[in-house]
Write a structure and sequence with these properties.
mainly alpha
Length: 188
Protein backbone atom coordinates (compact mmCIF):
# COMPACT_ATOMS: atom_id res chain seq x y z
CA UNK A 1 0.00 0.00 0.00
CA UNK A 2 2.97 2.32 0.62
CA UNK A 3 3.99 1.96 -3.02
CA UNK A 4 0.53 2.97 -4.24
CA UNK A 5 0.24 6.04 -2.03
CA UNK A 6 3.82 7.20 -2.52
CA UNK A 7 3.57 6.92 -6.30
CA UNK A 8 0.15 8.58 -6.35
CA UNK A 9 1.23 11.59 -4.28
CA UNK A 10 4.65 11.89 -5.93
CA UNK A 11 3.27 11.77 -9.47
CA UNK A 12 0.44 14.15 -8.61
CA UNK A 13 2.94 16.63 -7.19
CA UNK A 14 5.36 16.09 -10.06
CA UNK A 15 2.75 16.99 -12.67
CA UNK A 16 1.58 20.26 -11.07
CA UNK A 17 2.54 23.06 -13.45
CA UNK A 18 4.65 20.69 -15.55
CA UNK A 19 4.87 20.42 -19.34
CA UNK A 20 2.18 17.74 -19.35
CA UNK A 21 -0.38 20.13 -17.86
CA UNK A 22 0.58 22.82 -20.34
CA UNK A 23 0.26 20.40 -23.26
CA UNK A 24 -3.11 19.15 -22.03
CA UNK A 25 -4.28 22.75 -21.66
CA UNK A 26 -3.28 23.54 -25.25
CA UNK A 27 -4.89 20.37 -26.63
CA UNK A 28 -8.11 20.84 -24.65
CA UNK A 29 -8.43 24.43 -25.87
CA UNK A 30 -7.66 23.50 -29.49
CA UNK A 31 -9.94 20.48 -29.82
CA UNK A 32 -12.68 21.40 -27.31
CA UNK A 33 -13.51 17.69 -27.00
CA UNK A 34 -13.06 16.93 -23.32
CA UNK A 35 -13.96 13.24 -23.52
CA UNK A 36 -11.40 12.44 -26.22
CA UNK A 37 -8.63 14.41 -24.50
CA UNK A 38 -9.37 12.79 -21.11
CA UNK A 39 -9.38 9.33 -22.72
CA UNK A 40 -5.97 10.13 -24.25
CA UNK A 41 -4.69 11.21 -20.82
CA UNK A 42 -5.85 7.95 -19.24
CA UNK A 43 -4.30 5.79 -21.96
CA UNK A 44 -0.96 7.65 -21.85
CA UNK A 45 -0.81 7.62 -18.03
CA UNK A 46 -1.55 3.90 -17.83
CA UNK A 47 0.93 3.06 -20.61
CA UNK A 48 3.77 5.10 -19.08
CA UNK A 49 3.08 3.72 -15.60
CA UNK A 50 2.98 0.15 -16.95
CA UNK A 51 6.32 0.61 -18.72
CA UNK A 52 7.91 2.01 -15.53
CA UNK A 53 6.43 -0.62 -13.21
CA UNK A 54 7.46 -3.44 -15.55
CA UNK A 55 11.00 -2.10 -15.81
CA UNK A 56 11.15 -1.72 -12.02
CA UNK A 57 9.93 -5.28 -11.52
CA UNK A 58 12.63 -6.49 -13.88
CA UNK A 59 15.48 -4.38 -12.43
CA UNK A 60 14.60 -4.78 -8.74
CA UNK A 61 15.66 -8.42 -8.22
CA UNK A 62 19.06 -7.69 -9.79
CA UNK A 63 19.91 -5.12 -7.11
CA UNK A 64 20.69 -5.45 -3.43
CA UNK A 65 18.55 -3.74 -0.79
CA UNK A 66 20.85 -0.72 -0.45
CA UNK A 67 21.10 -0.30 -4.22
CA UNK A 68 17.29 -0.35 -4.54
CA UNK A 69 17.01 2.27 -1.81
CA UNK A 70 19.66 4.40 -3.51
CA UNK A 71 17.80 4.07 -6.82
CA UNK A 72 14.63 5.31 -5.12
CA UNK A 73 16.61 8.17 -3.53
CA UNK A 74 17.92 9.21 -6.95
CA UNK A 75 14.42 9.08 -8.44
CA UNK A 76 13.12 11.26 -5.60
CA UNK A 77 15.98 13.72 -6.00
CA UNK A 78 15.41 13.82 -9.76
CA UNK A 79 11.73 14.66 -9.26
CA UNK A 80 12.60 17.29 -6.64
CA UNK A 81 15.08 19.02 -8.94
CA UNK A 82 12.53 18.84 -11.75
CA UNK A 83 10.00 20.68 -9.63
CA UNK A 84 12.49 23.45 -8.89
CA UNK A 85 13.51 23.73 -12.55
CA UNK A 86 11.80 26.35 -14.70
CA UNK A 87 9.22 24.79 -17.02
CA UNK A 88 9.40 25.75 -20.67
CA UNK A 89 6.25 25.42 -22.80
CA UNK A 90 6.06 22.15 -24.74
CA UNK A 91 5.45 21.78 -28.45
CA UNK A 92 1.67 21.97 -28.85
CA UNK A 93 1.66 19.32 -31.61
CA UNK A 94 -0.13 21.59 -34.09
CA UNK A 95 1.05 19.62 -37.11
CA UNK A 96 -0.24 16.26 -35.91
CA UNK A 97 -3.19 15.16 -38.08
CA UNK A 98 -4.30 12.44 -35.66
CA UNK A 99 -7.29 13.94 -33.83
CA UNK A 100 -7.78 14.76 -30.15
CA UNK A 101 -7.57 11.26 -28.64
CA UNK A 102 -4.51 10.00 -30.49
CA UNK A 103 -2.68 13.33 -30.34
CA UNK A 104 -3.21 13.51 -26.58
CA UNK A 105 -2.32 9.87 -25.96
CA UNK A 106 0.81 9.83 -28.12
CA UNK A 107 1.92 13.33 -27.15
CA UNK A 108 1.69 12.64 -23.41
CA UNK A 109 3.21 9.18 -23.77
CA UNK A 110 6.25 10.61 -25.57
CA UNK A 111 6.49 13.61 -23.24
CA UNK A 112 6.36 11.31 -20.22
CA UNK A 113 9.48 9.33 -21.16
CA UNK A 114 12.29 10.28 -18.81
CA UNK A 115 10.03 12.64 -16.89
CA UNK A 116 10.26 12.83 -13.09
CA UNK A 117 6.97 11.01 -12.35
CA UNK A 118 7.90 8.11 -14.63
CA UNK A 119 11.31 7.83 -13.00
CA UNK A 120 9.67 7.93 -9.56
CA UNK A 121 7.36 5.04 -10.50
CA UNK A 122 10.43 3.12 -11.69
CA UNK A 123 12.25 3.83 -8.42
CA UNK A 124 9.30 2.77 -6.27
CA UNK A 125 8.69 -0.34 -8.38
CA UNK A 126 12.35 -1.27 -8.06
CA UNK A 127 12.25 -0.91 -4.28
CA UNK A 128 8.96 -2.63 -3.50
CA UNK A 129 7.77 -6.21 -3.77
CA UNK A 130 4.56 -4.96 -5.40
CA UNK A 131 5.59 -2.94 -8.47
CA UNK A 132 2.08 -3.04 -9.92
CA UNK A 133 0.89 -0.91 -6.97
CA UNK A 134 3.50 1.71 -7.89
CA UNK A 135 2.19 1.67 -11.46
CA UNK A 136 -1.44 2.00 -10.40
CA UNK A 137 -0.66 4.80 -7.95
CA UNK A 138 1.48 6.66 -10.47
CA UNK A 139 -1.16 6.42 -13.19
CA UNK A 140 -3.86 7.67 -10.82
CA UNK A 141 -1.63 10.55 -9.71
CA UNK A 142 -0.97 11.66 -13.28
CA UNK A 143 -4.65 11.36 -14.22
CA UNK A 144 -5.74 13.33 -11.14
CA UNK A 145 -3.25 16.07 -12.01
CA UNK A 146 -4.21 16.35 -15.69
CA UNK A 147 -7.98 15.82 -15.92
CA UNK A 148 -8.93 18.98 -13.95
CA UNK A 149 -6.89 21.01 -16.45
CA UNK A 150 -9.14 19.74 -19.23
CA UNK A 151 -12.32 20.44 -17.31
CA UNK A 152 -11.37 23.82 -15.86
CA UNK A 153 -8.92 24.93 -18.58
CA UNK A 154 -6.72 27.88 -17.64
CA UNK A 155 -8.81 28.72 -14.56
CA UNK A 156 -7.12 25.93 -12.60
CA UNK A 157 -3.60 27.11 -13.36
CA UNK A 158 -4.49 30.68 -12.37
CA UNK A 159 -6.41 29.63 -9.22
CA UNK A 160 -3.75 27.32 -7.81
CA UNK A 161 -0.47 28.74 -6.49
CA UNK A 162 1.52 26.62 -8.96
CA UNK A 163 4.89 28.24 -8.30
CA UNK A 164 4.55 27.87 -4.51
CA UNK A 165 3.43 24.24 -4.86
CA UNK A 166 6.39 23.43 -7.12
CA UNK A 167 8.94 25.15 -4.87
CA UNK A 168 7.62 23.62 -1.65
CA UNK A 169 7.23 20.17 -3.19
CA UNK A 170 10.67 20.33 -4.79
CA UNK A 171 12.30 21.28 -1.52
CA UNK A 172 10.45 18.54 0.35
CA UNK A 173 11.39 15.90 -2.22
CA UNK A 174 15.04 16.99 -2.12
CA UNK A 175 15.06 16.55 1.67
CA UNK A 176 13.39 13.14 1.43
CA UNK A 177 15.70 12.04 -1.38
CA UNK A 178 18.78 13.18 0.55
CA UNK A 179 17.60 11.27 3.61
CA UNK A 180 17.03 8.14 1.54
CA UNK A 181 20.45 8.49 -0.09
CA UNK A 182 22.15 8.88 3.28
CA UNK A 183 20.32 5.81 4.58
CA UNK A 184 21.23 3.81 1.48
CA UNK A 185 24.91 4.65 1.81
CA UNK A 186 24.95 3.94 5.55
CA UNK A 187 25.70 7.54 6.52
CA UNK A 188 22.42 7.94 8.39
Amino acid sequence: MDALLTALLGCLLGEIGDKSQLLVLALAARYDRNGAVIAGIVVAAIANAAVSATAGAWIGPMLGADARLLFLALATLFLGVGLLWRVSPPDTLDGWPTGPFLTTALGLFILGFGDGPQFLILGIATRTAEPWLAGIGGAIGVIVALVPVVLLRAQLLTMAPVRAIRMTGGGLLLLIGAGLALAATGLL
